[in-house]
Design goal:
heterodimer, A: alpha/beta, Aspartate Aminotransferase, domain 1, Aspartate Aminotransferase, domain 2, four-stranded mixed β-sheet, globular, B: mainly alpha, binds pyridoxal-5'-phosphate
């Protein structure tokens, strides 16, 4: 047997070490569909508890929407369950093509290719379009899946300080001799809820002849006046060369992702991107659900408008109560607690009050920037938000942090 | 001419330190110390090549050789 005790012990020690460092992640079982009200089993083995979910990426409240479920049922009936093939052998249905066209139209791009997930889209896209003569210049806070894609690509890589346009410009100058240059950013940064300055970035890319890549996973469907994404908010639709996004968050929340942008780049992905070539694409049932989602978002902005109102209520409520927030205008609202232990306790006490919101701390966010990340949904009704706000205030009072500044909280609890 | 050691040190401070209070010296481990990720070394290498009009072979710019200001300067001096 090759899995000797020595090997087993080595892994057990590594896992123990994670536990000791407080880095061990445990799943919490949800015994209901994804929605504002969920039933959670936590800790494992305890009886389930009804709580309000404040930490899903279910921004538009579509994860369990009856219209989406019905469309998925219809898709299941008409196109079956699985494809048992990758796209280019016999794994492409008419509805896959239909979804690609619909996404193209929705995002205002030239063409789109589906991937099993946005992780796969990000992992595959750079290698498909760049080589050793090129340079990728990424924001230092881009998502882990982009980092993986960059690692898999032979092009040179450099970074610029988060959202620092002067620094980006200096990097564009430093690498001006490269054949192709791609500037890489998230549209909405998922930990802080801030948005990339796409107008300035598009201008710099124009000036230095670089392509612009945006991962809009936390924006597609609700950022911008009609929910097309961060490029709509900054009035640069048509100027983003590559957009990647996910169907696993606002757009129904099941799974799947895509690369959308210049048609030659999309075609290169179809010819060369490995997660597209060597992995099954999105199941027909999910494709059918996403088609319905895009139709309904094109027909009406009601859901993203409601999300915007909910977000405003939530941000104002927390601010008036005296919490320290990360500034921004997206539905990602981080409540800053700075100290990791405080963030963990805060989250636990919220749970006791019937509110499900998770604490984030190092290494997910920088040391000394622990927080509770709340995420607002159009699936939240006013009574959800009011109850959650009251719970935050109650727990905040208990720890005596309301109205306290960052420095005061750090002085009280340490970093 | 500005001392090469200080050129490198200042570049690292400007480029990589987010927190102004952090202090580094000529010996501070940069890559193994988590200040510079091995990814971002690229820009440091390119900066030095441009500044001193030299070309450093990739295998000479290993994470070990670029781990502190003193050893970086040693590598660069071989090529100026
Ligand atoms: C910015 C960003 N990109 C990509 C992904 C991956 O999306 P998917 O679940 O479709 O792989 C995520 C999800 O966490 C994300 O936040």
């Amino acid at each position: 047997m090759a899995y000797s005790d020595k090997v087993r012990n080595m892994y057990q020690e590594q896992l123990e070490e994670l536990k000791e460092k407080g880095l061990f992640k445990e799943e919490r079982f949800i015994h209901s569909s994804q929605a504002a009200d969920i039933e959670v089993e936590f800790p494992r083995g305890s009886s389930t508890k009804k709580v309000i979910n404040m930490c899903a990426n279910n921004y538009l409240g579509l994860s369990s929407h009856p219209d989406v479920i019905k469309a998925a049922h219809d898709g299941l009936d008409s196109r079956g369950y699985g494809m048992s093939s990758v796209r280019f052998i016999c794994g492409t249905q008419d509805i896959h093509n239909e979804l690609e066209n619909k996404v193209t139209e929705f995002l205002g791009t030239e063409d789109t290719i589906l991937f099993p997930s946005c992780m796969d889209a990000n992992a595959g896209v750079f290698e498909a379009i760049l080589n050793e003569e090129d340079i990728m210049i990424s924001d230092r806070l881009v998502h882990a899946s982009i980092i993986d894609g960059i690692r898999l690509c032979g092009a040179m890589h450099d970074t610029f300080k988060h959202s620092n346009m002067k620094h980006l410009e200096s990097k564009l100058q430093l690498h001006s001799d490269k054949r192709l240059k791609v500037v890489i950013t998230d549209g909405v940064f998922s930990m802080d809820g801030d948005t990339a300055k796409l107008d300035e970035m598009a201008e710099l890319c124009e000036k230095y002849d670089a392509m612009l890549f945006v991962d809009d996973s936390h924006a597609s469907g609700f950022i911008g006046k009609t929910g097309r994404g961060t490029h709509e908010k900054y009035d640069v639709m048509g100027k983003i060369d590559i957009i990647t996004t996910t169907f696993g968050k606002a757009l129904g929340g099941a799974s799947g992702g895509c690369v959308s942008g210049r048609k030659e780049l999309v075609e290169m992905c179809r010819q060369k991107a490995r997660p597209y070539l060597f992995s099954n694409t999105i199941a027909p049932v999910v494709v059918s659900g996403v088609l319905e989602v895009l139709d309904s978002l094109t027909a009406s902005t009601e859901r993203r408008d409601k999300l915007e109102k909910n977000t405003e209520f939530w941000r104002n409520g927390l601010e008036e109560a005296g919490f320290v927030l990360k500034k921004g205008d997206t539905p990602i609202v981080p409540v800053m607690l700075f100290n990791a232990k405080l963030a963990q306790e805060f989250s636990k006490e919220l749970f006791d009050e019937g509110i499900y919101a998770i604490g984030f701390f190092f290494p997910v966010v920088p040391q000394g920037q622990a927080r509770i990340r709340t995420q607002i949904s159009a699936g939240h009704e006013m009574h959800h938000l009011e109850k959650a706000l009251n719970a935050f205030i109650k727990v905040g009072k208990k720890h005596n942090i309301l109205g306290k500044s960052k420095q005061e909280i750090i002085d009280m609890f340490g970093l | 001419m500005e001392d090469m050691k200080d050129v490198v040190l200042n570049y690292v401070i400007e480029e990589y330190l987010e927190d102004e209070d952090e202090e580094i010296t000529y010996d501070t481990p940069l890559i193994s110390g988590g200040i510079v990720d091995s990814f971002s070394m690229v820009s440091l290498k390119r900066f030095l090549e441009n500044k001193y009009k030299i070309s450093i072979p990739d295998e000479k710019a290993s994470p070990e050789a670029f781990d502190n200001v003193n050893s970086i300067v040693k590598v660069v001096k071989e090529y100026v």
